[in-house]
Amino acid sequence: MTMASSLRPLIKTKQYLMKHNPSIYGLLIMTVLACSCQKVINVKLNPDTEKYVIEGVITDQPGGCSVSITHTKNFSDDNNFPGISGAIVTIENKGVITTLTETTPGVYTSTTITGTPGNTYAMKVNIEGTIYTASSTMPQPIGLDTLYISTQLYSTDKYATITYKDPPGVPNYYRFVQYVNGLKEKSIFLNSDEFSDGLTVTGQLSFNNDNDDKKRDIHTGDSVKIDMYCIDAAVYKYWFSLNSQATGDGNSASPANPVSNIQGGCMGYFSAQTLRSKAIVAP
Questions:
Q1: pTM of the predicted protein model
Q2: Are 221 and 281 a contacting pair, CB within 8 Å?
Q3: Nearest in space to 61 (alpha carbons), one of 123, 109, 125
Q4: Are 193 and 244 in contact (CB under 8 A)?
Q5: Which of 124, 59, 122 is CA-nearest to residue 87?
Q6: Looking at beta carbons, which pairs linking 7-12 to residues 24 or more positions away fall under 8 Å?
């Protein structure tokens, strides 16, 4: 099944499928976001309010632990978000505490931590005496079975299409990131197994209305890579709310910030996540 841009909000298309074609619960419909995370976060704040933005991840791949710290700006300001230096950032797991090193301004990394599925990781960030904390449990990894290029009905535009097998009996949450010739697609692609538990899922990573940047389109000969992240429920809720508020799909009449899983009054998220990737050359 292909994804039509007229089906909005896209993340709610599962309800649409239930109503109109209950036999295809297992087909994946991805959500799309036309803006970067920082720009969306910036839009939601009052003009006189600034907050720190912390984005932390640890994966089950070597070198996959990093925390970036910036701060929001007024909407009228430029989109340059300088990093916040001098913070103390630690990751704790089973009593072992690792202090991350600031490798570039505002970016803190560790090459000694590799996450283990099933373990819970705690992040602590100290910025000039103010403490921000979060925890996240790394799900079990699920891999992509296939990656291929397809088109939509009555269109020659090319889109990455994926399949994977959702394991039964346990809630699963997914985020997908697309790269074309090394250029990261800014759209958000999400799925949960609310209506596809235990099924083989097929989904086309198509944009909703964000195809103005032709460099991000897929053409014959392009290198296409898809990163598949298994994330926990709190992180899924963050990306879900970020997309909903940014595209006007939320239920609230007034805009709100994404639902962060970080305590202390900042914005952003901390995610212990597994990573699996596939790459192809577009035919």
A1: 0.80
A2: yes
A3: 109
A4: no
A5: 124
A6: 8/208, 8/247, 8/249, 9/243, 9/244, 9/247, 9/249, 10/208, 11/190, 11/240, 11/243, 11/244, 11/249, 12/249
Integer Cα distance of 69 and 67 in angstroms: 7
3-state helix, strand, coil in the chain (%, to 5): 15, 40, 45
- Which tokens in the block code for residue 160? 């990455």
Q: How many residues does the chain have?
A: 283
Residue pointed to by tokens 């803190």: 108
- Domains within the chain, CATH numbers bracketed: 10-35+142-254+275-281 (2.60.40), 41-137 (2.60.40)
Indicate the pLDDT class of residue 255, thresholds 50, 70 and 90.
Answer: low
Query: What is the distance in angstroms between the CA of the first residue and the CA of the last residue of the chain?
Result: 20
Q: What is the DSSP letter of 218?
A: B
Residues 227, 167, 141, CA angle at the centre, nearest 5°? Answer: 40
Tokens standing for residue 96: 């072992």
Q: What is the pLDDT of residues 14-36, one digit of tens each?
A: 333 333 344 333 443 343 333 33
> What is d(CA 61, CA 148) in angstroms, rounded to the nearest whole number?
24
